[in-house]
Amino acid sequence: MGLAVATAALASCDQNGEKAVVVKETGATQTTEAGTPDIVYVNSDSLLANYEYFKDVRTRLQGKAEAKEKSLRSQAESFQKEVQRFQQQAANMTVQQASATEQRLMQKQQQLQALQQSSGNELMSEESEEMKKIYDQVESYLKKLSEEKGYKMVLTYQRGNSAILYSDSTRDITTEVVEGLNKEYETEKVEADKAKETPKKK
């Protein structure tokens, strides 16, 4: 799976809805009246590793990928057996029969290759859509949290690939964000389960 791309920078919103990904010069930072820093950061690696929604999506996509791979492998093995049978029987075929069989096998091989390509593209497209949903969920929560806490900017930190070289650990709100996101996700799952159990009106 290509879910490693998920550890890319997670954009967040300030109170005006403006995205803040990289800050070249912050200068002297300020704090809110309650003593809360107005610029904080989230460790994207830790967030995704502990966000239950992301873990569920990853498990589901991996399951689909494995199922498709198994199906393609089975079809490839079946095709290979057909090729072997043709090779064994070719000497007893007429020129026309051999030519027709070769043509059929070539077409089948092309179909298998096309199926493999389309399956890969389908998985990549679904993964991209799911990651967009995850980013939207995170961004929406960070916007709401920033409005509650008075954060002016939420940066993203990823070890070895970040604009933040150092920051006081008190500015790390990853744990709080993960807990909030997981709580919201759990509520959504409970509501979804209730909706499934509710009998439809005729």
Automatic annotation (TrEMBL):
Kindly give the Gene3D superfamilies that the UniProt entry links to this protein.
Skp domain
The yes or no answer to whether the keyword Transport is present is no
Q: Which UniProt keywords apply?
A: Coiled coil, Signal
Q: Which domain of life is it from?
A: Bacteria
Please give the Pfam families that the UniProt record associates with this protein. Answer: OmpH
Instruction: Give the record's GO CC terms.
Output: cytosol
Sequence segments annotated as region (Disordered)? 182-202
Give one GO biological process term.
protein stabilization
* Regions annotated as coiled coil: 69-148
Molecular function in Gene Ontology = unfolded protein binding
Please state which protein family the record places this protein in.
Answer: Belongs to the Skp family.
Report the PANTHER family cross-referenced here.
CHAPERONE PROTEIN SKP (PTHR35089:SF1)
What protein name applies here? OmpH family outer membrane protein
